[in-house]
Amino acid sequence: MKLLSYFSGISNSYILGSNDGGGAVLVDPDKFDVPLLELIESNGFTITTILVTHSHECHIKKLRVIKKIYDAVIISGSEELGGFESKIAEPGDKIEAAGIIVETLNLGKRLTRSRIFRIGNFLFTGNLVSAGRIGDSISPEKRALLIAGIRENFLTMPEKLLILPSRGPPSTIAAELRWNPNFHPDTLL
Q1: What are phi and psi for residue 41, nearest 5 degrees?
Q2: In sequence order, what E strands does the chain have?
Q3: Which of 112, 133, 161, 163 has a CA positioned 20 to 30 A from the CA of residue 173?
């Protein structure tokens, strides 16, 4: 499997597909411009699935452009995004997309329409988890639920998993366990 990243100047987007090209998954599109299109096409990819971790406007405003180019299925935590039908990914679901298994992580209680997707050793966390921080754009109540879900689920995940947020640099479970105060069991709640 090939993983490509694209930084739009504001957000990170990711493309996953076979090393041989073909169908691919686009995660958290922000800007759909010529350089992103060239990155997709030069790797022989056709976007068949779009994963949206959270429904901030920056991740849904370009769906219209993408859908004009690719007949892609949208998967998110909402039934509709930007006027397009979206398949809801429930926590615990395993979905096949472009020949890739996408798992929606279960963070315990439903806290938002945000989703964390796991594909192999990659965690696409949107704005819920990134290097050194946890969902600062959510309410204190939802933040407490997120931290409880992390206690129950993230702390038991393989430390080699790569965290790929929609904003900020990548990290690993190992790095977050060591450096992120929100991941320390004695400071979670």
Answers
A1: -70, -40
A2: 2-7, 12-17, 22-27, 45-51, 73-76, 80-81, 84-85, 87-88, 94-97, 100-104, 117-119, 122-126, 129-130, 133-134, 162-165, 171-172
A3: 112
Closest by Cα among 126, 124, 122 to 136: 126
Task: For the chain, give every domain's residue range.
Answer: 2-187
According to the model, what pLDDT value does residue 153 have?
76
Query: CA torsion 68→46→36→79, rounded to 10°?
Result: 60
Task: Go through 20-29 and write b for each residue having 16 or more CB atoms within 10 A of its CB, e for each that does not.
Answer: eeebbbbbbb
**CATH code of the domain made up of 2-187:** 3.60.15.10
Q: Which residue has tokens 């993230």? A: 154
Q: How distant, in Å, are the alpha carbons of 9, 13, 163 from that of 77?
A: 25, 18, 19
pLDDT digits (tens, 9 = 90+) for 42-54: 999 999 999 999 7
